[in-house]
Amino acid sequence: MLRFVLSVAGIATLALTSTVSAQATSLSTRTSIPGTLAPGDTVLYAVTAGDDFLVRGAVNQVTVDVIVRILNPAGRVISTLDGPAEGPERFQFETDTEGAWQIQVIPFEDGAGEYTIALDMLEPVAEDPEELADQLLSAYDREDSPGAVVSVFRDGRTLFSKAYGMANLSYGIPFEVDTRSNIGSTSKQFTAFAVMLLAERGELSLDDDVRDHFPELPDLGETVTVRQILSHTSGYREFLNLLLMEGRRLDHGDFIDRSEVIEILQRQPALQNSPGSEFNYNNTAFALAAAIVERISGQDFHEFMQDNVFGPLEMSRTMVRPSPEHIVEGKAEGYTPGPGGAYLEIGDLGGALGAGGIYSTVGDLQKWIENYAEPMVGSPEMVREMMTRNILTTGDTSGYGLGLFIDEHRGLRRIHHGGADVAHRSQLAYYPEINAGITTQSNHAGFDGSIAFRLAEAFFEADMELEAEEEEPAAEAEPFESGTYDPEAFNEMAGRYAMEELTTFILTFFREGDTLFTQATGQERVEMAPTSDTTFTLLNVEASITFHRNEEGEVDALTLHQNGDHRATRVADDSVAWKPGPEELLAFTGRFYGGEIETFYTVTLEEDHLILQQRRREDANLTPADEDEFSGGGLQVSFERDRNGQVIGFYLSNGRTRGVRFERVK
Length: 666
What we know:
Shape: globular
Strand content: 25-35%
Helix content: 10-25%
Number of helices: 12
Distance between the termini: 43 Å
Structural class: alpha+beta
Largest sheet: 8 strands, antiparallel, barrel
CATH architecture of the domain at 187-236 and 271-463: 3-Layer(aba) Sandwich
Number of strands: 39
Strand order of the largest sheet: 24-25-26-27-28-29-30-31
CATH class of the domain at 187-236 and 271-463: Alpha Beta
Radius of gyration: 25 Å
């Protein structure tokens, strides 16, 4: 199943004719270097490291928002970082080749100002797994930083468990291994388990029509089953994305009541997809699942979970938080980076019950995983069904079961789920073939969830397959200087390419002046930078492109490198993106009302581009895509015309929520 995530909230606009510093400045630990960026600059720094080193540092954004790119000694971009606009932009990577690794500092959206860069760590990667855990988590192990905790277990024994940093910065309370932390969407497996307990008792069927339990929901023409809400294939609107569209500021703690989920579904005019045909990760569905448990059991969800799951499994430090106002004793407060390197205290999401809302500890999560291995609550058949990949009505298999992701990790079957509330981060993984698991929890919004999988490789290395070796670069190859690339050479690659795994998913490549872009179907355009004559990295997205020539030397295919390699072939229509002029754009301006979410949007024209405005959202510059379609600010806008060609409305999408109609009112 193709997973493509080019859609991002902010896109860099670095011109390819930018000024690139002629020589990289060498970085060493314990030294802070000041720097200044002008629009279009790319400043280079180099870290000389051996094979298998850990490198960590930060660019402190004093008066400029920056993007940081990491390149290996062969000049290939391995990561692109663009976090908060203020404070430190942190980077951390492991080397796999001896040589000079490059760190590029670039202004976001042609900004200008001052920054400093410092290298905090440059040392060989620890061979001992416990020492590696200390290395990887040392960035969070400070008295002035939100913290984290990790635990590794196997065959009923805890192999390693340790906490780092602070649970509460206001009162100086350190993170402990028994500190309760919000596990976010890791909660979904608990909700699915609760529904399946009721099914096992004969109180419902997974094939029930959801409207059997919620008769107040509208009949949208097709049956949505309980199984489909647990497998993210229902076709329902994703309520958090919809509320963002409405202008709700979830990042600032705007209130959401649980009742809004039902109200949202009552206003939904049609399903987004035929039930069971498409995987679309969906918090609405799991909010419904928790409500089903309540309606059938007659108990509040938090009481049902305590009586039927947490209590019997002796998970004494785990609880469902009914709302963000409820007290959770001994919890980690959530924090997100703020201006000047300070931290902001951020509350939990409202309305998250069922989709999230559980506080737990690493010790209790170990007990939970052990119940998968030898069920004391539930049955082996129930667990097996949760861990079976769902088959779509198209015949394709998703990577999700019932409340759980299912895949392989270096040859081992992996059952896992991550979680993210506004500020808390969670990861829980189970390797059933070796009866082992790992969990990481953090109250730092910038925590790297992949640390859990990296530590799993260290602790369970003997049971895993070796990683595939990358082909060594040719010894005579010179590092590629992007500033020397002729943008006109990109003309032969510009065009439209269909992904072979999903032919309706098109990548369009084009250039505007000296700036190169790609745009995926239904997503915003993303700027690219060359890393060779035929390879390009995507700015602000961890992905790259390699173009291929046929026997006649014509560019007719490409490979997208993102979560694996995905091939695409050029389609017959190789036209570039639609480019309307100011007079054409004027036809799209006006005020539009979305009755489904009772919200107004205004479209205005500023010089040569449209701006989308909503009273609680930042103004978004709209970029043309296909004819009558635009994107900007994390939104996709598809305008609607009447039979006379007049613009009468538009449909708004933002990933998980699609096709919300707005009617022109003036």
